[in-house]
Amino acid sequence: MTTRAEAAAGGSRLLSKSILVFATTMLMAGAGAVFWVIAARLAPAEDVGLAGSLVAAGDSLALFAQLGLNIAIVRTLPESSRRAADVVTAVLVVASAGTLLGLGYALLLPVTSPRLADVLSSPVTVVLFAVLVGMTALNVLTDNVFLALDRVWSFLRLNGVLMGVLKVGLPFALAGAGAFGLYGSVGLAVAACAAASVWSILRVVPGSRRPSPSPELLANRGFAAAGYVTYVLTVLPLLVFPVVVVNALGSAQAGTYFISFQVAALLNVVVAALANLSYAEVERTRTHRHAAVRRSGLLLLAGSLAGCAAMVLLAPWLLAVFGEHYAGSGTATLRVLALACVGAAFNYWGMLRLRLTADLVAMIGTQAVSTVVMLGLGVSLASHGTVWVAAAWGIGHVVGGLLGWMLTATVRPFADDAPTPAEELEPA
Length: 428
Description:
This protein is mainly alpha-helical.
């Protein structure tokens, strides 16, 4: 049984790390906001818009480039027999995938978006964009490696401080190069952070640097694939909903929804970061996992409710930063999106529980149901206003969380003690 002292110590560790993750996320968000304010002062609005589109595309491609390795590495690295080799393998795979996706995206721009194609009009800019997407993908991966290695302070120093300083400073040097200069300011800041992260990680991780994945990592290929599929299902509504709103309500309402969601995304990013931290913490816990999962659930609930309450109260003033029009038309939507982030926290907790079962079918099936509910409600209710689209996002998350909790509480319970490395290698 977990003693009161052990439970208190575990809760204290999780709380202190959560504060560091929260601080890092806020520094990253703040630096991003300051960057765009500086960009708007230094460059024409058209360049800012084009650069923003490239940044959004690069970020999305970087997430797709993870191939589930960002999740698998958190699961396997603490007990890996070849830690350094696993890190190097994941680094090479993810960076290569990101670069290839970036290259493919850039080469298709003349067909998909001629205006963006004008920004990447030379072989040099195409190659640079592809490389920077690869480095962005690498930075996403190293964030998870830091959590797996329990090096949250390194995460703060590099992602919070170093990246923030570079993002604020680089536009002054590169804004003169137009839209690609602005994109390059963001891309180079992320690339520098990614390179520093890899160097920092390999300094402390023992073992050969030869890219030869451990048996533990290879045994979790199915887990990585399932994690990747669930991720794609999670982000699909975020890609589809803006199109749904445009088609149903027009561009003006779509703008309101976009701005409201960008503000709510600040809370969602924090909740997602806490969920990743919680998962890494639970995977390092060898015994009394049920107690660790309960602590994680309480953390996610408290963090999401606190953020939701603040955003609901401050909604008009947060939107007024973007213009009085948004404050007038988007306040209700932002408040519903803030409530939806509480549902997202519940869904992340349910998925955490499912990951501990290693039931790949349950992981994919649960997220598929959640996504279908989101899209079905969003499409059918969009004509009634952006508030209902926001509600659809939240309801889908709640359904996913309920299903994940019910499955792990009944037919697919997870063990209180973590499996041994030998058990991890046994075929499912």
